[in-house]
Design a protein that fits this description.
The protein is of the alpha+beta class. The protein is built from 3 helices and 6 strands; from the N terminus they run E-E-H-H-E-E-E-E-H. The strands form 2 sheets. It has a 4-stranded antiparallel β-sheet with strand order 3-4-5-6. A two-stranded antiparallel sheet has the order 1-2. A hairpin with a 6-residue loop joins strand 1 and strand 2.
């Protein structure tokens, strides 16, 4: 197992739990992706409207038109589990800010909802 190939577009979070680094191999990537609680930046839902926002480390670099700026985090705004809007971020800090800003725009209270499986919010 020591000779597993490095796959160029697979990323994991560094030891600080917030900084994307290239995955050394597919097993490390799988370990990182397995526990969503470690990659959940934020999750909030408005119980009255069903609107919610979920922000996660994506595990792959995505490019929004600028190949020099890979995006590693995805914030999805949803209405009763149907995605309505997606915004990408490059850093954990930017993802937190995006999550909070989109919650404000869509009237989603933050810090009061827990993920279905008990993941705390931002």
């Amino acid at each position: 197992m020591d000779n597993l190939p490095v796959i160029a577009n697979l990323w994991v979070l560094a030891e600080d739990g917030r900084t994307p680094i290239q995955a050394p191999d597919v097993l490390a990537w799988g370990d990182c992706m397995e526990d969503y609680r470690k990659r959940q930046v934020g999750y909030d839902v408005n119980p009255e409207t069903g609107m919610g926002a979920s922000t996660v480390f994506y595990g792959m670099a995505r490019f929004g038109g600028d190949v020099s700026k890979p995006m590693f985090f995805e914030t999805m705004v949803f209405d009763r589990n149907s995605p309505t809007f997606i915004r990408l971020s490059q850093t954990w800090e930017e993802a937190e800010q995006t999550h909070m800003a989109l919650c404000a725009v869509y009237g989603i209270p933050t810090g009061v909802t827990e993920h279905i499986q008990g993941v705390p919010n931002v």
